Amino acid sequence: MPAAPAAKTAVIAPSDETASAAEIVEKFLVASMVPDPETAARYIAEPLKLTFTGGRKFSHPRESTAFNAKRYKWVKKKMERSDVAPGDGETIVYNIGTLYGEWPDDTSFEGNRYVDRFVVRDGKIVQMDVWNDSAERLLTLNGIEA
Questions:
Q1: Which of the ends of the chain has fewer CB neighbours closer than 10 A, N or C?
Q2: Domain limits at 73?
Q3: Each residue's pLDDT tens digit, 77-96
């Protein structure tokens, strides 16, 4: 019996829309680092589906800003790159880099890896997923080798 023909998948090429999505994400992140959640909100569709480290769910940048204010004395991102994947009606942007700043006890840190994944539709961020090594670093600071 002959093999069935392979299913064809759509190939979506990078475009001005994908470049624009990366720019939107970077503007959002810059505003978030100020921190200026109201300016950051200009780049989102409400309600935003934001999943933070530890599976915490937020729907607006002011909520993640409030969380960060408890976890860090201050924190900034050293953005290394954005990887962009065009999709059908949306663009996925991965922003990769490291965090630096101070913990609430005034201990400085740097080189804390992060990956932020964004879904951008119609020029707005509709979803953001956040991963970083902060929990690992906090364990180490507290003498726990995990």
A1: N
A2: 16-141
A3: 999 999 999 988 999 999 99
